[in-house]
Amino acid sequence: MSVVVSIQIKNYSTLYSAIKDCNIIIGEMEDTESEMAKNILGTAWSLRSICYYNLLQSFCEPYQPETATETLGLPLVDE
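Predicted structure:
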C-alpha cells in the first residue's frame, strides 16, 4: 500500500470519527436552550459539516447531471 493511500484511509477514518462524535453531541444534548448549549450545538453542527466537506473534496467525483444516477457519493452517518 502506498503512503498516499495510507494517509487517505487514515484521513477518512479520522473524519468519520469526528462526525460520529458530533452526532453524539447533537443527539444526546439534553439542554438545548441555554447560550452554552446553543454554542456547543452550533459548533458540533459546523464541525460535522466541515468534515463532510473535506470528505467530499477528497473522495467524491464532481457532480455531473449526465452521470448522477450512476456515480456514488458519500455515506451519511446520522447516528
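Summary: The chain is about 65% helix and 0% strand.
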